Every structure is written in structure tokens, then in C-alpha cells.
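Page 37, top half.
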Amino acid sequence: MRINSLNFFAENIRPEWEDEKNKKGHTLTLQYEIKNLAEIQEFFEVIQRNWIYLILLVVGGSIVGSEFVIYSNYLIKSSSNIILNNISILD
């Protein structure tokens, strides 16, 4: 299985679940299963663009509560046609 992933961590957060700051947080996961492979590129571009906008809003502090976001990732599981977006926040 091929997996491609982009990860964004807040400052002073190690990129591992064992980091104490990650243990008590919550995660919102959006999973998209692409059934029509003819439209995969267009669908992929929309999801990717929205994830980048979200990261820019968080980094810029434009979203209420953005100071609680500690991790976000964008994951593509090409063998199963699934795209995942995860956002983790402090408890």
C-alpha cells in the first residue's frame, strides 16, 4: 500500500503520539472515499486546497481556538482510494 502524507505540528510538539502534549487531546478526522476514479484529480485538488487554507488560518490565528490546534495531517492511501484529514486539539 502506498501512503503519502503531509503533517503540520505546532511549535514544541514532537511528531509522535508519545509526546505528553498529544496524549490528552482530541482528533477530528474527515475521511473521503473516492468511488468515481474518473473524478479523482478534481476531488483531490479541492480537498488539498481546503487543507492548505485551514493550515494558513490556524498559523495566522484567524480561527477562534487556533491556539489549541497541535497537529494536522493530510493523508492519501492510494491503494484504497481514501483521503484523510486529521486535526488534533489540546484537551
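Page 37, bottom half:
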Amino acid sequence: MTCVPGQVRIPRLSAAHILPGAKARASLRGRQSVNQGVNFRLLSLIGQVGVMMVVFILLGLVVGQWIDGRLGTSPTFTLGLMMLGIGAGGWSIARMVKWALESTAQETTKHEQ
């Protein structure tokens, strides 16, 4: 293959270059399946984070408006419960992310052994 001036050609390395033979292919197959599972788990985590935050904020909004309507206090409970929803959502998301990272690390180390 010829290179065009100004273009850099980067060679591709495969498992056969690093680890020779069938052992390399088997090793990479196992790692790819573990990494794919981890990637899908992290993608689902991103979706859950958004949904959880919206649910907590909307719950605070709806309950706050209901209480404000009953008591006649305009935005007091709505704003307060929305802020409480933001805090509760952040705390819940932090717990969920911590759990997901710990389980991912355990699964990765289990498959590497």
C-alpha cells in the first residue's frame, strides 16, 4: 500500500501479534464478552440516572403543588419539595453508581482470573 503525503498509516495489531496462537484468540473472546456486558450495563446506568432524577423532581413538584393548593401557600412547599427531590435524586444516584461500579469491578476481576 502506498501512503499519500501528509497521511499517517497506523498498523493494526491483533491478538496474534501480542499473544501467538489459539490462546490469544480465546483470551480476547472472553474479555470482549465481559467488556460488552460492562458497556451495556453502564449505558443502562446512564438512562436510569436521568429517569431517577426526573421522577424525584416531578414527585416533589406534584406533591408540593398539592400541599400548596390545600394550604394556600403559593410556591413554598413546591420549591421546598423540589429541592428535596433534587437532593434525594442525587443521593439515590450516587448509591446506584457506587453499587454498579463495585459490581462491575468484581465481575471484571472474576473473569480475569
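Margin note: Helices lie at 15-18, 22-71, 76-112.
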